[in-house]
Amino acid sequence: MGIERKSDRWISLIQSVVLHAAVIGALAYGFYAYKQMPKPPAPTLAVEGTVVEADDLQPVQASAEPITPPPEPEPPPPEPAPSDEMGPPTPVEDVGPPTPTPEEIQQRQEEEQRKLEEQRRAEEERLAAERKAAEEKAAAERKAAEEKAAAERKAREEAERKRREEERLAQERRAAEEKKRAEEKRKAEARLRAEREADLRRSLEAEERARALRSSDAFRSWIGQITARIQRAWLRPPSAKPGIDCVVYVTQVPGGAVTNVRVGECNGDAAVRESIESAVLRASPLPPPPDPAMFERNLVIRFVPTD
After folding, report:
1. pTM to 2 decimal places
2. pLDDT beyond 60 at 10
């Protein structure tokens, strides 16, 4: 809705005051004219006659010609004013203002009709102005409402455009992040694969070196030293028979300390097995290898004591 201007209220107030003043003035003028109109005097008939004798009357003969009425007698001349010798003059009765003529009455009626017509036109103009002002106000309000609706629609469209743009940018960022994560994952997998390949290659190389070392004379010499120390630490039990042949599994740590020992295939009894395990533990720490690269955590030793 539009805001009513202060000037519009003043214009309406002034028009209303002018209209009421015109109506009140017309009523006052009519009342004043009515009071000023003189009361008509009571009609009086003046009869003048002449006494004639009957003999003087002539018989009236019928005639086809119309009878012309006698002319009206002229008014008698004004009587002279009485002199002072005859006494004071007779006072003249005040009969008020003269009676208005029909022309004056018609002129007054026309004047009143003209004023009423002017008042009617003024009222119509006022109503037309009010209608025009109301129409202009309604048009301004419609225009303001349309502009407001258009502005709101534009704001909604702009907000929707920004939202779609933000969604597009967010999707692009997510796609870029996913692509980056995929690339990082691919690189990590490639690094891991390369590391695994390198570890496998190193393991194969170490295994190859270990096989080469185990097949070397130095490795066989080191195993012989360990076997000799175990045999020196072995206490032969009474149940041991000649020709003992047992496989012993020994676990050691760097430095030669034995952490576990187990007798596998063996042609001796339980006492022989226990004596061999005790001999391995007494032989700890085992002799170190001549080359640190030759060290093996898990050893398989064939225990065949000499009788």
Report:
1. 0.36
2. yes
